[in-house]
Amino acid sequence: MLTNKVSDQIKRSKYISRDLSWLRFNYRVLDQARDTSRTIFDRLKFMAITASNLDEFFMIRVGSLYNYIDYGKERLDYSGLRELPFRKKLLDYAHRFVNDQYLTFNNELTELFDKSGFDILKVGDLTEIEQKKVDSYFKNTIYPLLTPMVFDNYHGFPLLMNQLLTFGVVTRTTEEQKAQDRVTFVQIPQNLARFYEINRKDKIIFVPIEEIIRWKIKKLFRNVEIVSANLFRITRNGDFTLEESDDIEADFVQEIKSKLKTRKKGRVVRLEIERNPSAFMMKVLKERWTIDNANVFTITSMIDLRGLWQIINHRQFKDKGFKQPASVTPLSLPAESVDMFQYLKEHDVLLHHPYNNMEPVVQLLERAAEDPYVLGIKQTIYRLADQSRVTAALLKAAENGKHVSVLFEVKARFDEERNLREGERLEKAGCFVIYGISKYKTHTKMLMIIRKEGEKVTRYVHIGSGNYNEQTARLYTDVSLLTTNDVYAHDVSEFFNVITGHSRPNEYKYLLTSPKSMRQQLIELIRHEARNAKKGLKSGIVIKINSLEDKEVIDEFYKASKAGVPIKLIVRGICCLRPGREDLSENISVKSIVGEYLEHSRIYYFHNNGDPKVYGGSADVMVRSFDRRIEALFLIVNEELKKEAINILYYNLLDNQNSYIMREDGTYSRKKPAANEEIVDVHKLFYKKVFEETTQEVELV
């Protein structure tokens, strides 16, 4: 009866729960692992991604929910549920997902291993010679690194690390004629490979490291009876949103460093464990971590599917997966090599990644570092690649005596340590480094190069939706703008003054920024379309973003829909808006594109009665984007570049290979081409010559 009430309450809400919507997104990723047209290696890749996604979901979203539960704070989900009923609903749904995840892995993927040139085997499945090799590996490499940690009346409960595979070993000793059970924990060091590899003539055998340790577990417990040995893995709360604003005057870098340490001790929100674990051990763990069966996930095969990356990235299989086509020349750049400093003085350039590579930006920065006429470089950095060429260029610029200002966002989730390390390197080289803006997260992506050219100074500006990361630029779709337009340059200069000093400009001409005014400016653009619709003028909105969650903007979409504005939303992940509900959102459609590339670009289109306003940039329609982040959207004013951005939206709307259509109840169905309908796959289309030459006028609404 209670379950029905909860379901009815969720259905009545005019908003979709953010967290339930996210789990539906991960189902769309899982759908890629089920796609039989993909190679086994690509299917395993998407399986590993679902596991990584779920880890972050539990650390951040479930962790955030427990911040409210554990500290007695009230929380009302978009579904209308309070903390505890929502916890039950959310964890029930997560259990369903994990069950489907492992059904896919066990029933659809493992049967393909043998004929694909590899297999995952236990030690008992190996030949005698192979077992000797494994035995030697255990003795020489694994055994010296293992540390049994007992918990009993004489030893405190050890600190078990987040997301490490751990054996809980129950042993029994007889002392004074009384049997006593104890539990000892053996964590598998994270610097050991997930699999031990054995080369056979026709295939590679991957032996899970936990199976090797299980095989030799008695070596750690000599002359002691082992009652059971169960593998498990815990996920701890990694969300610090409640604490981050407590003391904004504190030394911010030290605050972040201290929180990185507490992440290791965060409350346990999930326990993944093998089937049929020791009841004694489970009682100990549940009591210790204040968890119940809802937090316990029984895993039917390999725990932690992220380990599949070792197989996916194996040198022998590197050519067996998706082959990325060569990048194409941006529409707004000539095919032949040009002097970018000269070219940008006369032309704006729109880049569409990964179809256009990131080289024009990186090479411009590298050249600026060496150019004697460049006076300074200013840049915001959110995430960087390993061995980053961006960092190398900034270091070189500083060594060459140029003024270098860098804002490193040290709250870039899970990249905090790398950004702190890279920031300290730049500081030592003489760069002016700012580590974030206290209570705000700097998410905007901006670069400005100041160059003296004769009697004047030219400012070269880059602004976009993607990070300055050469690695992810090959995997994420993003848009960005290169320009020397004085209006952009003035706006970006002012914006840098805001984030590095105490400037408060009245307005920007080409930028919408947060946390000051972006939400209200977007709302005004939506209202303008509604007013046009009411006047009988042409209207329409098309927006492509990662996530849609802000209630104020959602409510404006609902009002605009009632006014007759056709609204088409392309939302990759979370969508809290209900499309197609009678007398609420009948004119709103929502689709999600999930495929080979992670859809990361943000493009906002407002019809404006035939004179479209089109923006690109870093911001999604989320509360955090408007209230807790420094973000920027840039107006595309060049007519040819505007056409190109509109075409990107147009073909995204046409896509029928990677698209999922959202229903009114929040579920999704995969879009399939109708009979005789042309196949449109945006992840292939944007590489084609035909699109390189396409800047025609198209109707989006």
UniProtKB/TrEMBL annotation:
Enzyme class per UniProt: transferase
GO cellular component: polyphosphate kinase complex
Domain Polyphosphate kinase N-terminal positions: 15-120
Record-annotated active site: 443 (phosphohistidine intermediate)
Keywords of this entry: ATP-binding, Kinase, Magnesium, Metal-binding, Nucleotide-binding, Phosphoprotein, Transferase
Cofactors required: Mg(2+)
InterPro entries: PP_kinase (IPR003414), PP_kinase_C_1 (IPR041108), PP_kinase_middle (IPR024953), PP_kinase_middle_dom_sf (IPR036830), PPK_C_dom2 (IPR025200), PPK_N_dom (IPR025198), PPK_N_dom_sf (IPR036832)
Keyword field contains Plastid: no
The protein's Enzyme Commission number: 2.7.4.1
Domain named Polyphosphate kinase C-terminal: residues: 339-504, 511-678
Binding-site positions, Mg(2+): 383, 413
The keyword DNA damage is annotated on this UniProt entry: no
Reaction catalyzed: [phosphate](n) + ATP = [phosphate](n+1) + ADP
Residue stretches making up the Polyphosphate kinase middle domain: 130-311
Domain of life: Bacteria
Modification after translation (UniProt): An intermediate of this reaction is the autophosphorylated ppk in which a phosphate is covalently linked to a histidine residue through a N-P bond.
Residues binding ATP, per UniProt: 53, 476, 572, 600
GO biological process, one term: polyphosphate biosynthetic process
Role: Catalyzes the reversible transfer of the terminal phosphate of ATP to form a long-chain polyphosphate (polyP).
HAMAP family membership: Polyphosphate_kinase (MF_00347)
Family to which the UniProt record says this protein belongs: Belongs to the polyphosphate kinase 1 (PPK1) family.
Protein name: Polyphosphate kinase
